[in-house]
């Protein structure tokens, strides 16, 4: 009799053993694979959101340039604070800060503890005073830009007159302008810890320009003003972060120029002191200029978001 040919036995695919004799199973490998996939997806979403933010910031930047081209008088607000800061800071340096300058530039040798304290005090006061001056002119230029975007442009100094008419209210916010980051976190404390990234991002990018309409046109408290501003621009904090990073990169490049030039020509103690002095003065003035110019693009972004929500 003809026997039927036997079928070859199917070979079972090798599987990782799960007995106690073989403790190494494939479950950790699967968990690791899932973690890698989640990490890749996270980086992909981060890259896409960053690219969209850069594109949106570029569109806002172009619109801001069109606003400046339509009203070139806005650039006066970039020169006025620099002139005002330079004149007043020189007087303050000679009259009030002369002891710190003497401690810093009269001693030759290594940095002593009292000298470090003088440097820290001088840098801290310069940053505070620059933020104070830029806050006034930021509100002024924001009022002018917003009027231009809304189709009823005012005269060149209309924003400055508006700031002067609300001088004490603007001063309250200007004095607190260096604390905008903790103020933003405090105003959004109820959102923590659920949306930590949004809270941190909107607090870092909180700008006097986005608070200027509420400062100049309402009598809301500081906490309400900060909260309303964040509710308006909180969703586009990535675009604001792009502008802020760009501003500080420009400031850094301008500030290190005197030290690079001084280092290339002379490395004496006197030249080193002069280089640091020029860098400090230039840092304060440049900070005021770019802070005010950044207010133009922040106001454009504010108007765009406000229009979409209306």
3D structure, described in words:
- The chain is globular and about 60 Å long.
- The protein starts with 26 loop residues before the first helix and ends with a helix.
- It has helices spanning 27-70, 76-95, 98-105, 113-149, 158-165, 167-175, 180-187, 196-204, 208-217, 222-233, 237-265, 269-309.
- The protein has twelve helices and no strands.
- It is an all-alpha fold.
- Helix content is 76%, strand content 0%.
- The model is unreliable at 16-22 and 108-113 (pLDDT under 50).
- The chain has one domain (44-309).
- Helix 11 packs antiparallel against helix 12 (269-309).
Task: Give a topology summary.
Elements: H1 27-70, H2 76-95, H3 98-105, H4 113-149, H5 158-165, H6 167-175, H7 180-187, H8 196-204, H9 208-217, H10 222-233, H11 237-265, H12 269-309
